[in-house]
Amino acid sequence: MSCMEMIDADLLNRIRSQKPLIHNITNVVVTAFTANGLLALGASPVMAYAKEEVADMAKLSQALVLNIGTLQTDVVEAMIIAGKSANRHGVPVIFDPVGVGSTPYRLEMAQKILSEVNVSVIRGNAGEISGLTGQTGLTKGVDAQEEETAGLVENADACAKSFKAVVAMTGKEDLITDGSTHYLVQNGHPLLMKVTGTGCLLSSVLGAFTAVGANHLQAVVTGVAAYGVAGELAAEETGEKGPGSFQTAFLDQLHWVTDKDLQSMARVQKVNP
Amino acid sequence: MSCMEMIDADLLNRIRSQKPLIHNITNVVVTAFTANGLLALGASPVMAYAKEEVADMAKLSQALVLNIGTLQTDVVEAMIIAGKSANRHGVPVIFDPVGVGSTPYRLEMAQKILSEVNVSVIRGNAGEISGLTGQTGLTKGVDAQEEETAGLVENADACAKSFKAVVAMTGKEDLITDGSTHYLVQNGHPLLMKVTGTGCLLSSVLGAFTAVGANHLQAVVTGVAAYGVAGELAAEETGEKGPGSFQTAFLDQLHWVTDKDLQSMARVQKVNP
Amino acid sequence: MSCMEMIDADLLNRIRSQKPLIHNITNVVVTAFTANGLLALGASPVMAYAKEEVADMAKLSQALVLNIGTLQTDVVEAMIIAGKSANRHGVPVIFDPVGVGSTPYRLEMAQKILSEVNVSVIRGNAGEISGLTGQTGLTKGVDAQEEETAGLVENADACAKSFKAVVAMTGKEDLITDGSTHYLVQNGHPLLMKVTGTGCLLSSVLGAFTAVGANHLQAVVTGVAAYGVAGELAAEETGEKGPGSFQTAFLDQLHWVTDKDLQSMARVQKVNP
Q1: Is C85 helix (H, G, I), strand (E, B) or coil?
Q2: Pfam families from the xrefs (chains A, B, C) (predicted)?
């Protein structure tokens, strides 16, 4: 079932005309790529980490992105201060639980942040989203594709309900849900997996879409599709050149991707779990 | 009025033969781009942040660049230690007040640094330079172009006099002043605004020019023009490809830009306020 | 004397099939380039710095890379915790003493780490490797090429014996030794010197080779040669374009370089000191 009514391609134009300020408290690996990706798309990135200023910066912003990729205890504190300020001022918060299942510390810090800050959107891969609510239970083995997807929908659901957020569980296909309705986005390109920070940048891009789109479920579906379409355009451009060239072309295409590209190339369907 | 006597194109050659060591204490977003830009230009970048070593590193260097883009309190302390060491050893200090007006904390920290360290050059956009001395007073509105420029010259002037530094107020056009003489540089390209850290890298590049040019006003005018010329050459190279390709080409052109390019392409004029 | 028996080109294939997890505690300048280089090569990078989680992350990994490029005291503490965990779990540790001779603090911290953690591989330039054991004694002057090389072999030797590690002293040519046998690798390209972090990334790449190759001396010789071959292929690709384009092409070629390229292009010889 095609669900193009969930795509609001005009959000792309609104990002470019409104240039929303996106405050990122993110990991040390992806700072430059995140800022360049947001700039290319048409948004205005800012990074600020000091406890003394994050509340002020979050208040000024149109979205706040919290990414735990290279956590330190003082950064967690800053994230909570910034998140509470965003909550007070109606600024949507996007949360990216990078590697949350890999160490107990990350899970503990992620849960601490989520217990103190109301987030609008959570984006992560299947393991991260499932890990957040303790519901890993992923079916293992190569013959278990169907059961695996079924389990993932339930896990995304549980995460969305638990944190009252739109969840984007991204991977080969991207599942987006608010806990009751579910969409599958089938855009993107495998080369995106060969560039560090493409998941993190997507979270920040969802900040930009959420900043200009009051319907967060629609903003996230649209943002995920637009990002995947830019990836497809970049792969067309660079072909077999390799991941270095693809990274460059992807930034180019975040700049060039249009509402028309999105309307013609987005592949979105509703999922009935 | 043309002012090519303020361009000393030979400084480019001196950077390449002397390879001055530029010590950067900069924000976490632009570290790699700054180092790659300085390397491409022919200088030697070093980054060092620990309180225990910044005095030693600043002493070894030919210029010190302090950039407050992602301040933390312990980094401010390191900046002051490094700055005092640079002052003691005659190493020029370049200060970049990134986003100084956006939060009270940034302004307070910037003023603290400037009260303890003598800086040779301050580079920022109009809002940042004006904010440093509390003289925002920018004329608002689309019909106020002339008054606005007039106000900016006064603000740059006040900043230069207040901190006894050469001020580079950069934007669509770049205004450079030591508080009494004023130059306007009209090089550069709009695509520079689509790559994160091009302002920050310019501050570090001014470190390289100041390291090899005893006349700091001339070194800054020349550095700003050379940087803009490299941007124009890069835009010629990449045309409509987009900001990812431009970033790559800009690093290429920082490597290739010559004294002859600078002599033929620099657009500098004296301003009578 | 040709020593191709020291090249195990199949290690490249093993990295791509096993995708070893490489835990990097590295400097803030090279994080993205390191992660992108490891991804391009086929390995799985992870960065984690918090004291609370580095022991867990190092245990999960197939190699741990410690790089002191932008040291802070709390990072040193995290490095030691991670290193001890790696030692307990048989995970090889690669150490990169960036700029160790430039300040007393760096030397002290490097020695502290090496006194508490057993490292399998140390990679640095001639000054860094020599500095680690206090044996600088490099012959100065342009006419002293032969004595200089002789001195360097002795210094690499002393470092390898002192820390019971394979030492890769890299530069125009790369010297690799376990303290008794010595190999010279003559691959690479001068453009590698114009991109920041190519030394740091090599250290992380040696982590990937060490992760899949039980014979660490052979793994390091092979990794250094493969890295140099990728550099040569990238330089062929970009020619005179400049360091920005070279950086992109180098990431592409880390993805494309094959066991056959390595077998036909590696230049390795045994050295009799």
Answers
A1: helix
A2: HK
Question: B39 to chain C: which residues are within 8 Å by CB?
Answer: 193-196, 243
What is the nearest CA distance from B57 to chain C, expressed in angstroms?
Answer: 7
Asked if residue A130 lies in contact with residue A137, where contact means CB atoms within 8 angstroms, the answer is yes
Q: Tell me which residues of chain A have a C-beta less than 8 Å from any C-beta of chain C.
A: 27-33, 69-73, 99, 102-106, 193-197, 241-245, 247-248
Q: Are C132 and C97 in contact (CB under 8 A)?
A: yes
Kind and range of the H or E element at B65? strand B63-67
Tell me if A273 sits within 8 A of A157, measured CB to CB.
yes
- Quick check: A206 and A221 in contact, CB under 8 A? no
Phi-psi region for residue B100, left (φ > 0), alpha (ψ -120 to 50) or beta? alpha
Interface predicted TM-score (ipTM) over 0.85 = yes
CB contact under 8 A, B31 and C33: no
Was A197 annotated as part of a binding site? yes
The response to whether C267 counts as a known ligand-binding position is no
Amino acid of residue B23:
H
DSSP E strands, chain A: 21-25, 44-47, 63-67, 93-96, 121-124, 166-169, 174-177, 182-185, 268-270
Q: What is the pLDDT of residues C191-240, one digit of tens each?
A: 999 999 999 999 999 999 999 999 999 999 999 999 999 999 999 999 88
Please write the tens of the pLDDT for every residue from B114-132: 999 999 999 999 999 999 9
Taking the alpha carbons of C24, C26, C32, C38 in that order, is the dihedral positive or negative? negative
Of C72, C106, C197, the CB nearest to B49: C72
Distance CA(A127)–CA(A104), nearest Å, equals 14
AA letter at B164:
K
- Residue A62 DSSP label: S
Subunits with at least 3 CB pairs below 8 A relative to chain B? A, C
Q: C-alpha B93: how far from its chain's center? A: 11
Q: Match 């990794």 to its residue by tokens.
A: C223
Number of Cβ within a 10 Å radius of residue C232: 19
CA distance A70 to chain C (A): 5
Q: Which two tokens stand for residue B175?
A: 């205004």
